[in-house]
Amino acid sequence: MPTYVRTLFLMAGTMFGSVRRALTSLNEIERAAELCIAERQEILKNGENVERKDIMSSLFDVIKEKGDKVDFGLTEAKVEVYVALFAGSDTTAAAVSSILYHLVKNPQAYRKLTEEIRQAAASGELSRPSVQYSEAIKLPYLNACCKEGMRMHPSVGLTLPRNVPKGGSMICGEWFPEGTRVGVNAAVVHRDKTTFGDDANEFRPERWFEDNRENMERHMFQFGGGSRTCIGKNVNILM
Predict the structure, then answer these.
(1) pTM
(2) pLDDT tens digits, 164-182
(3) Does the annotation flag 146 for ligand binding?
């Protein structure tokens, strides 16, 4: 579908109440981003110490330390907060919910993960009260559970569309002419038995320790892929 046709569809969509409500919600997110920036500004203006280290703290650190040099100010910070609220809240919550749900539904995996964390804590490998990312990535079963949770229930159910390049392309035995819009749903790819095995519909973190791991990694699309990979991928993993 040509880009200009999609624009016309979006314009026509404003005639429907659901679309108008969606646009209103986007405006509310923008106002929330502005409020977040204003509140943090007020705290810093009053000389209060912000002990919590979050994304907002990092943004204001950039503004303070090298904002003029890299042309990053309050406007850019607001955009970053908007993106985090719009694209990074529900998706991160969905990923965490999936991981916790499947752990609760699979007591054996839950016990195994709990034991790994307890052993790491007892040996002093984990910081308190907050575990550092550099420490968490050294827990193999924890990482396997996170991957498996996102495999079972990817946060985004879109088809991740792409346009067929010039000259057309043969995809899965079917010919698609150039300009055709094609896409694949991550949830479908993640349940492919030829890649993830006959038990692809089951939550089994142990699969990430098998010889087929690298091939499975290439077929994980919870963050998209290639040049269009989700810009919040690392933030989601940190969460």
Answers:
(1) 0.79
(2) 999 999 988 999 999 999 9
(3) no
